[in-house]
Amino acid sequence: MLYRTLGRSGTAVSQLTLGTMTFGNEASEEASHAILDAFVAAGGNFIDTADVYSDGVSEEIVGRWLAAHPSEAEQVVIATKGRFPMGEGPNDLGLSRRHLARALDASLRRLGVETIDLYQLHASDALTPIDETLRFLNDAITAGKINYYGFSNFTGWQLTKAVHVARAHGWAEPVTLQPQYNLIVRGIEHEIVPAALDAGVGLLPWSPLGGGWLSGKYERDVPPTGSTRLGENPERGMEAWRARNDDPRTWRILDVVTEIADVLGASRSQVALAWLLAQPAVTSVILGARTLEQLRDNLGAGDVELTAEQLAALGEASAPRVEPYPYGGPGVQQRHRRIEGGR
Question: Which of 5, 79, 251, 333 has its CA 20 to 30 A from that of 286?
Answer without folding.
Answer: 251
